[in-house]
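Section 3.1 - Work completed
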Amino acid sequence: MHRLTLIVVQALLIAASATANATDSLWKEYSIPEYGFRVALPTKPQSRVVPLPSREGKLRVFESIETAAAPKRLKVPSSII
């Protein structure tokens, strides 16, 4: 289980790092000391446990969801209508 967690965290770090380089000014570095890693994300990461059909039976997931503000007015070009 610990190995699976490390693989998932490494994959997330690689993806976050690649995206963070494109928008460095919008991302902040967050430290998760109890699990021994730091990650750059657009918002503070939330943690949750996901049940898995395995011997350990669970996986802790850290996720950061950035919600964009909805547009106030949507305009459809006349060429589409």
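Second construct:
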Amino acid sequence: MTIVKVNLMLSLQGVVDLFIKNFLISTALIVDYKTDHVTSKKMEKKFLRDRHKEQLRIYKEAVEEYYKLDNIKKHMFIRMYYHSLIEIE
């Protein structure tokens, strides 16, 4: 994600890696793939949650506004160690 400040405006550029929408029950899932390298497996989940939660919050806000949804889950897919999804609050 690129953040550029211009005068009093803020411009964001980013791409949601995976977006799944369930049309039957109006829910959605946003998944962001991460390949960050963290030296301690024990600290990885918390570190990556803290590092990327704002990015996923912004993606969620954009998807909510565009699709008029209010039930969106945010996850990261972590390649290092886990190869699994981590939910972001």
